[in-house]
Amino acid sequence: MTRVWKWNRPVTVREVLEDLQRERSIAYTTVMTVLDNLHQKGWVRREAEGRAYRYEAVSTRAAYAAALMNDAWSQSDNPAAALVAFFGMMSDEQRQALRDAVRMVQGPETTDTGADTGPENPGSAQDGGGR
Question: Which of 90, 42, 93, 85 is nearest to 67 (CA)?
Fold first, then answer.
């Protein structure tokens, strides 16, 4: 998927193969099988072009990551504890990205009071600091 996302356009097995072969030896059939498996799972769509297919990602890398996180979180028997543990693993940069994302989702009507507590500030006094 990384190679398909990298180009952000439909790609052929040959293009992916040539890109991968810059780093390691890999067979054409291996790449073809992986892309076919991704198609079967619904992660890529394909369109015939002559005797070959062009493969294109169904969703962005960000949407895929979000779906994975949502799936993992929804499987937890204690979602709040899972979030606290996840926030505790985050770097300062990741926490800031989370704060920024929460602000974007909340929209302009929400004002930031500057307090270092609450859900937009993971790692705050509410969960023991975590920093």
Answer: 42
Q: What is the pLDDT of residue 95?
A: 93
Residue 109: pLDDT band (50, 70, 90) is: low
The CA distance from 37 to 30, in Å, is 11
Residue 91 identity: S
pTM: 0.61
Q: What is the mean pLDDT of residues 91-100?
A: 94
In the β-sheet with 52-57, what is the strand arrangement from edge to edge?
11-12, 52-57, 44-49
DSSP bridge pairs for 18: none
* Residues 6 or more apart whose Cβ sits within 8 Å of residue 30: none
Phi, psi of 44 (to 5 degrees): -135, 155
